[in-house]
Write a structure and sequence with these properties.
The complex is a heterodimer.
Chain A (H helix, E strand, L loop, with lengths): L1 H9 L2 H9 L1 H20 L3 H20 L1 H6 L8 H17 L4 H29 L4 H22 L19 E3 L7 H4 L3 E3 L2 E3 L1 H18 L2 H11 L1 H6 L4 H27 L1 E3 L8 H10 L9 H26 L4 H18 L7
Antiparallel strand pairs in A: 1-4, 2-3
Helix pairs in contact in A: 1-2, 3-15, 4-10, 4-13, 4-14, 4-15, 6-7, 6-8, 6-13, 7-13, 11-13, 14-15, 14-16, 15-16
Chain B lengths: L1 H12 L1 H17 L3 H20 L2 H5 L8 H17 L4 H29 L4 H23 L22 E3 L14 E2 L2 E2 L2 H19 L1 H11 L1 H6 L4 H27 L1 E3 L3 H15 L9 H26 L2 H45 L1
Antiparallel strand pairs in B: 1-4, 2-3
Helix pairs in contact in B: 2-13, 3-8, 3-11, 3-13, 5-6, 5-7, 5-11, 5-12, 6-7, 6-11, 9-11, 12-13, 12-14, 13-14
Classes of the chains: A mainly alpha, B mainly alpha.
Chain lengths: 356, 367
């Protein structure tokens, strides 16, 4: 490893760029730029492509933002994101069950999801404090167990609203629930800008910006700085009199709550609530997005979130259209799997100085 | 005092199997399945899964935890079977050829996996887990796009109508249970796959023998303490890579045995679940992340698959909804792995703090 870095340093500006930016990240950026150049050439509608990317950014941004607190406090990448997502889903379904409609149902969903997120987050954080060092693997399986547990619960819990349960049996929630008449597009329609094919969902973007700003501001408060200290050097943090377990717990609760809000925002953009196995694989895209944006296992910033989400969603939306128009062969799924998991692998194999 | 802690420790270690015995004992009468049916199923599943689960033992020995990367071997096995069924080589020769084809692929994949795991020491499990996802993408690339376009596939029966790529299911009718039925034996209506059991027994002997070899001893040393092993002159990196390669190769062969019993390949999903179910079964048998024996494998297969068979029926009977039981067994598989991982990490921390306290006491005494 040492020799390689030496060689890179002698390589001049390109080597330094690779060093700072990371080779996989560079490849992904170049790939997206290539796709953007190719799109008009192969005859894809350029404005609608950009609209797609922005829309998807607004859906996923907060889920990616949810990664930040746990990375800062040294808990690693939050593979347990599904736990927060479940709190959000509980909020969404209970809000609909109670008969709220329109924008109010969105607000109520957030309010109802919050206590669930706090309780689940506390339990999850307490568990992660017990098993310092093995967070990521256990987080993955906590997520999986909770999703499969909730699969049973969605069937058993006494939901009655005819818009949500199976029509024939009269009980058990459907796998997808339409949000038409509830909070579909609530944020996106707010102050929406429309120029021909080109649409900007201003409300969703503003909501993301608000949460991102709050996160940024939080990280600059005393507690926020303490969180960063815990993540970058636990021994130093303990010497400085910081209660490490409490800070870590706080970061996990924040992450879980953000995931709950994130899934609600995702649903309002997408227009459907997806239950059962749907939350299962939602952690991996968020994890790889923040890594593509330049974060590492123990370092992440708001800029990483924004860049990463744009790059990741850009590739997810652009690849199918460009590929289909070009060679009539849809390899986008395979490319997405290889690129996103390759990115996670790359981050896991980096040496993380100071984290140990 | 010492005896008491021993008993507590034993109970703690065997808590998962005991829990499973209780679940099964509760579910079996409710499910209302006949004993002969249950025994038949269990014996079949033992033949089907044991080889795959045994492949997990070697990396545990080398201290690399549960090898979620065994999926890689399963993929290699599947590729071997797809090629063989395209070449229309039937029966036992086809199986043997599929195993032979799988071996170089497994070695390559295992080497890749081991190399990466060496770069991610301390978080092998999550890394091997992500590798299995990553390789699933590569596998799809090969099977869905390259087979038929670059890798020649002659028969339209396994090719997608568009001209390249493999169909969702590949029939293995020509090999179906050929190995199981090689030496036919039926005792009181229970069909016993004698040949498969003989192969599994041979593998068990090989593993026992392997533990005593130089390489096996090295692996255990590496598993005990990486730094000490390095100081003792063991090439730690090489040993770890070898353990992953062995595991991957065994998983590839195990997958061929597994699929000949099933009789068809679900091309894009057979391998994705196999890792989880094998690991869950091993843990149910009382293994932990750093310690697993051959006994754990067989106890695990029996208990886990007993639960697997009876849970959906019992769930359907209790709630009137067949899906509940399906979800329940998925939940249990994940929950078992979660609990085992948590127990492993807490024990590791406890041992660490204990060792720290001991060291402090010794230093105190030296003063």
């Amino acid at each position: 490893m040492g020799e390689k870095t030496d060689i890179k340093k002698e390589k001049g500006w390109f080597g330094r760029l690779v060093e700072d930016f990371g080779l996989p990240r560079l490849i992904i950026t170049l790939f997206l730029i290539l796709l953007l150049i190719l799109a008009p050439i192969v005859g894809a509608d350029f404005p609608s492509q950009i609209t797609n990317i922005i829309a998807r950014f607004s859906w996923n941004g907060i889920l990616v933002l949810a990664m930040v607190p746990m990375v800062h406090s040294g808990c690693g990448l939050n593979f347990g994101l599904p736990l927060g997502i479940i709190s959000g889903l509980l909020g969404a379904t209970i809000s609909i069950e109670l008969g709220f409609t329109g924008a109010l149902s969105f607000l109520m969903a957030i309010l109802i999801a919050t206590p669930f997120a706090l309780i689940f987050g506390c339990g999850y954080g307490w568990l992660l404090n017990k098993i310092k060092g093995g967070e990521m693997m256990i987080a993955t399986y906590v997520g999986f167990s909770s999703v499969s547990f909730m699969c049973m619960m969605w069937l058993v819990l006494p939901y009655k609203s005819p818009n949500m349960v199976w029509g024939l049996a009269g009980k058990g929630l459907r796998t997808t629930i339409s949000l038409e008449g509830y909070y579909s597009q609530t944020l996106a329609k707010f102050l929406q800008i429309r120029i021909g094919n080109f649409v900007i969902p201003t409300g969703s973007l503003l909501f993301f910006a608000l949460l991102a700003f709050l996160m940024w501001a939080f990280l600059h408060t005393k507690t926020g700085t303490a969180m960063t200290a815990v993540g970058s050097n636990p021994t130093f943090a303990r010497a400085a009199g910081i209660n490490i377990d409490r800070i870590r717990l706080l970061s996990v609760v924040m992450s879980t709550w953000l995931a709950a809000i994130g899934i609600l925002v995702y649903e309002q953009g997408f227009g459907f609530v997806q239950l059962y196995m749907a939350p299962f694989y939602m952690a991996l895209p968020a994890v790889s997005a923040i890594l593509i944006g330049g974060a590492s296992v123990n370092k992440a910033s708001i800029t990483n979130v924004i860049i990463g989400t744009i790059l990741f969603q850009g590739i997810v939306t652009m690849t199918p259209t460009v590929m289909n128009n070009m060679i009539h062969m849809d390899m986008s799924e395979v490319i997405r799997i290889i690129a996103s998991n390759g990115m996670i692998l790359y981050a896991l194999t980096r040496k993380t100085e100071g984290a140990k | 005092m010492n005896k008491k802690t021993n008993i507590v420790g034993l109970l703690q270690r065997s808590s998962v199997p005991i829990m499973f015995v209780i679940i099964c004992a509760l579910c079996i009468p409710i499910a209302g399945l006949s004993p002969s049916y249950l025994i038949n199923e269990i014996v079949t599943r033992m033949g089907r899964n044991s080889f795959l689960i045994l492949s997990l033992l070697v990396p545990i020995m080398a201290g690399m935890g549960l090898n979620f990367g065994m999926t890689l071997g399963a993929m290699a096995g599947e590729i071997g079977l797809i090629l063989v069924s395209d070449w229309q080589i039937v029966g036992i020769p086809g199986m043997v050829l599929a195993m032979i084809i799988s071996v170089p692929n497994s070695v390559l994949l295992g080497f890749f996996c081991g190399k990466i795991l060496n770069m991610a020491k301390g978080r092998e499990m999550i890394t091997s887990y992500i590798i299995s996802y990553f390789m699933n993408g590569v596998y799809q690339l090969v099977v869905l796009y390259l087979m038929g376009s670059i890798i020649p596939i002659a028969h339209t029966s396994i090719k997608l109508p568009r001209g390249y790529g493999i169909r969702n299911t590949v029939s293995l009718l020509s090999m179906r249970q050929k190995l199981d039925n090689l030496i036919p034996l039926t005792i009181r209506g229970v069909k016993i796959p004698v040949m498969t059991f003989i192969i599994i027994a041979l593998l068990c002997l090989v593993i026992i023998w392997f533990r005593r070899t130089k390489l096996g001893q090295d692996m255990r040393a590496v598993g005990q303490d990486l730094e000490v092993a390095r100081d003792a002159g063991i090439n730690v990196e090489r040993t770890r890579i070898l353990s992953v390669i062995i595991s991957t190769v065994l998983a590839g062969i195990g997958m061929v045995i597994y699929l000949q019993n099933m009789g068809n390949i679900a091309t894009y999903s057979s391998h994705s679940q196999i890792g989880m179910f094998c690991i869950a079964a091993l843990l149910v048998g009382g293994a932990s992340v750093d310690k697993a024996s051959i006994g754990n494998v067989f106890l695990g297969v029996v208990l886990f698959h007993l639960m697997f068979i009876v849970a959906p029926r019992a769930g359907a009977y209790i709630t009137g909804d067949s899906m509940i039981g399906e979800y329940f067994r998925v939940f249990v598989s994940y929950a078992v792995i979660t609990v085992a991982l948590i127990m492993y990490e807490t024990n590791k921390r406890r041992a660490k703090s204990l060792a720290g306290a001991q060291l402090a006491a010794e230093q105190e005494a030296q003063k």
